Amino acid sequence: MLIAIFGESCTGKTTLADRINDAAHGKIYSGKDYLRLAKSEAEAVRLFRQQLSDAVQGDTIIYVTTEREHLALLPDGAVRILVTAELDTIKERFAARMHGNLPAPVAMMLEKKHGCFDSESHDFHVHNGCPDAEEICRNIF
Question: Is-cis flag, bond preceding 75, omega within 30?
Fold first, then answer.
């Protein structure tokens, strides 16, 4: 099974992936982790696409990304989970990652990207942690 979890930074994607993986016992890839599969980017992309395709009918892979262009890697049959949060929540979480400081350019970048995934097709939408991972797992499995 292939489960794709996508959305902006600091929305809870990794937490959700970890909880789903507790039930699925799969492999989690984040962002460009797939580049480790080969020396060249083109070969790594090819190998990763094949793994994702194979996962639709086989072992579980959970792919977590904050980049819209990575959604093009997903084959038909992937379970797609959009994870969102309010902009203020995202800023608070991002500031916490930066030891309480959110520089103005970073805040502007977060504001610019906010909502960039909203029009992407998805099977499930998790907003501010609702529905929770247990409910998502019941629906998926």
Answer: no
pLDDT in tens, 86-113: 999 999 999 999 999 999 999 999 999 9
Structural domain count, the chain: 1
Distance (Å, whole) CA 81 – CA 64: 10
Q: Rounded distance, CA 104 to CA 112, Å?
A: 12
Prediction pTM value: 0.95
CATH classification at residue 96: 3.40.50.300
Please give the structure tokens belonging to residue 108: 């502007």
Q: What domain range includes position 132?
A: 2-140
Nearest to 7 by CA among 74, 81, 63: 81
Cα 37 from chain centroid (whole Å): 19
Question: What three-state secondary structure class fits 63?
Answer: strand
